[in-house]
Amino acid sequence: MPRYNLVIVSNRLPINVSRKNGKLIFEESAGGLARAMSSLEQQDRIWVGWPGIAADDLTEEEKVEVETELAAFGCYPVHLASEQVEQFYEGYSNDTLWPLFHYFQSLSHHRDEYWAAYQEVNRLFADAVESCSEQSGSIWVHDYHLMMLPGILRERLARATIGFFLHIPFPSFEIYRLLPQRKELLRGLLGADLIGFHIYDYARHFLSSCLRLLGLSSYQGLLEYDGRTVKTDAYPIGIDYDKFRNALSEGSVKKSISALNESHKGQKLIISVDRLDYSKGIPERLEAFRILLADYPQFREKVRLVMVAVPSRTEVETYQNLRDQIEQTVSRINGEYGTVDWAPISYQFQNLPFEEVVALYAAADVALVTPIRDGMNLVAKEYVASKQNKPGVLILSEMTGAIDELPEALSINPSDAKSVAEAMHHALRMSKREQLRRLSVMQRRLKSYTVQAWANDFLQDLEAAGGKREQQHKKRMTASERQALVDAYRSASSRLIILDYDGTLKDFVPSPRALMAQPSLKLRRMLKRLATNDANQLAIVSGRPRKALERWFRGIDVTLIAEHGAWTRYDGKWTHTDNDFKHVKKQLKPILAKYVSRTAGSEIEEKDYSLVWHYRNVVPELAYVRAAEIKRELVEVISSDEIGVFSGDKVIEIKPNDINKGYAASELEAVYQSEFILCAGDDYTDEDMFRDLPAEAYTIKVGPGDTRAHAQLASVTEMTTLLEELSYLE
Ligand code: GDG
Question: Are 25 and 17 in contact (CB under 8 A)?
Fold first, then answer.
C-alpha cells in the first residue's frame, strides 16, 4: 500500500458505491467538501471512508474491485458490515450524538451496543489510516462519526499531524455532560493537534467541557494535554462560490428558472431546501407559513411555498415519524387554505439534481432557512450566491452558524412562529433596492471565504500546529541524552542534586494540605538512597513551608530550602531571610479571605514569607474570573515594589521579589562546589534555578511547556524512574 502525506478521513467517501442490476456502480457525490479537497495544492493525498455499500453485500472479489476502482479516484474504502452501519452510523452517530449535539436531548438514545460499535468502527478507520499514512504525515478527520479516531491515531502514529473538524455544533457543557461517554470522546478528540469548529461559540463550549470534565486549563484557545498543546479555533465553512455563479449561465438551469417563473406568474415564490431532519425546524416553518396565510389573507393565492425535503437517515424511527408529521401538516394547510387553482405548499420529498436546486434558489423571492440548530447551514449561503444581481430575501435562523457571516439576512428565532410569519411579511414587502443592497454585502463576504479558502486555511494552521508539536518535543530527553546523563553521574566524584517537590517528585493533589501530598514510602526510600551516597549532596527546593518539608524528609540527609528560599536548612539548622513580610500579610490576608468566602473550592495557604490563594478545586470559568479580579485588586493595594504577585499552576502567590529559587540554587552551587549538578523542576519558579545554574548543569523540566532547562521529561513518573536508576549507582 503506498503511503501519503495527507490523509482525509470522513464517514462517507466522495464516491458512492451501489449495486444496480447486479453490477457495482461508482458515482461521484458533488458535495462541497469533495470540491474543496480536489482544489487543494497538496497532491500527495488519499481519502479514507465508507463507500456506502455494506461489506456483507460484497464478495471478496468485489471488495478488491471496489478498492481498485476507488484507488483511481484517490480513495481508500473502510468496509463496514450492515450490523456495524446500523449500530455505529444509525445508532451512536445519529441516534445518540446528532440529537444531543443539536440540543434535542430527549431524542438522544443511549445503548451499550451503539457505543461498542462506535469504538470498533473508529478502530477500523484507524487501521485504514495507519496503512496509508506516512509516519509523520498530516491527517484530517471530519465530523462526529469519528471523534475517537484522533486519540487512537495519536497512540499509533505519535509523529503524525492530526486535525479534526466538527461540522455540527458542539453543545454547551450543560447538554454535553449528559452523554455517558463524555470524557472518552473528549480524550479521543484531544489526540488531534488542531480541532476546528464552524464558529467561536462551539470552540468555547468544547473548551469549557475540557476544563470541567478533564480538569485541563486553556489559554487563548490552547489546551495542554498529554504533554502536547492542542489548538482549537473557528473556521466557518464556505461554499464553492463559482460553481453556483457559473451554473446560472448554463442552459439547463436557465430553462428551469424560466419554467419556475412561468408557473409562478403573479405569485411570490418562497422556497426551503434541506435534508428532512428535526434539527431543520420544518414543522415550525410550516406553522409560520400557516400564520402568514391566516393573518395576512391578501397573500392567499399570491404566494407559494416550495419545500424540498431530501430523504435522510430513513432507517431511523425518529425520521420516519417526522416525515409523517410533515406530510400531515402540509395536507392540512393545503386543505384549509388551498383553492381549486392554488395549493399554498408544494412539498417534494426527494433529492433534486443540482441544476434544479440552483434554479429554485435563483427563482425564489424569499428563502426560508429556519433550523432549530444548525452547525453552519450551507443552503443559506448557496441561496445568496445564486441570486447574483437579482433581488431576493434570505430569512435565516439565529440558531445557525451561518448567521455570524450573514447578519444582513432577516434573522429570526425559529421557535417563535409568529415572528417568522412577520419576517416573511417584511420580506415580501421589502424594496428591491434594499434586497440588492443586503445581498451584495453578503455575496462579497462569501466570495472571499469559499470552501476552498476554508480548507487551505485549516490545513495551513494544521501544519503550523504540527510544527509546534515537533518544536515542543525537541527538548524531550532522548535515550542517548539520558544515557549521557547517567554516564556523567557515574563518573563524577562529587554531585549536587537539586529537586523541586510538587509536580516534580509528586503529582499534584487537589489541596495543598491534603495528606496525599506527602511523599510515599517508595519515594522516601529512593531519596534516602541518593542522600546516603557519599558523593552526593541532595537538596529539596520547594515553595512549601519548612514544617512540612522537615516532617516529610525526617531521617534523610538532605538540604532543605523552603518557601522558595526564604528558609534554608543546611546541616540541620534553619535560617531565614531578614525580610519582614508580617505587615504585608496583615494587610492582604483579609482581601484573600473575602475571595475565599465568595469562591467555593478555593483556599488560602499562609506561609512565613508568602500568601497563596489556591483555586485548583474551583469551577474553571469562575476560577479565571476570580484569579484576574484578585490580581487586579492586589496590584492596586500593594504599594511596595519589593512584593510581587505571581500566577502559578492554579495558584496566585504573593511573596517578596528577592526571594526566589534562583538565588537558592546559586547558593547551593557555591556551598557544595560539585563536579556534577542535576536540577529538576516543573513550573515557573523552577525556571529561576535553570537560569542561574551554570550551563554545564543538567537541568530538566518535568511536563510540557516552554522552558530554559536543557531537557524535558514528560511526567513525574519519568522523572522518578530516572532518579530511581541513579539511586542504585555507586
Ligand atoms: C452538515 C451540518 C453544515 C440539499 N438538498 C438538495 C441538495 N442539498 C445540498 C445543499 C447543501 C447541502 O445539501 C446541505 O448542507 P447544509 O449545510 O445545509 O446541511 P447538512 O446536510 O445538515 O450539513 C451543517 C454542513 O454539514 C457543512 O459543514 O453546514 O450545519 O448539519 O449543499 O445544496 N443538493 C442536491 N439536491 C437536493 O435536493 N443536489
Answer: yes
Q: Which of 240, 274, 374, 500 does the annotation list as catalytic?
A: 500
Write out residues with Cβ below 6 Å of ligand 1.
32, 167-168, 237, 273-275, 308, 310, 351-352, 354, 357, 374-379, 382
Give 208 Cα–ligand 1 centroid separation in angstroms: 28
Domains in the chain, please, with CATH? 4-234 (3.40.50.2000), 241-448 (3.40.50.2000), 479-577+659-727 (3.40.50.1000), 582-656 (3.30.70.1020)
pLDDT mean across residues, the chain: 94
Query: Given ligand 1 and candidates 140, 168, 376, 451, which is best to mutate, with the most ligand atoms within 8 Å of its CB?
Result: 376
For position 166, what pLDDT does the model report? Answer: 97
Q: Max Cα separation, the chain?
A: 106
Q: Which atom of ligand 1 is nearest to the CA of 31?
A: 32
| Residues of the chain above pLDDT 90, percent | 86
d(CA 645, CA 634): 8
Residue 500 annotated in active site: yes
Q: Tens digits of per-residue pLDDT, 450-501? A: 999 999 999 999 999 999 888 877 889 999 999 999 999 999 999 999 999 9
Provide CB contacts within 8 A for 610, sequence distance 6+: 543, 563, 564, 566, 581, 653, 654, 655, 659
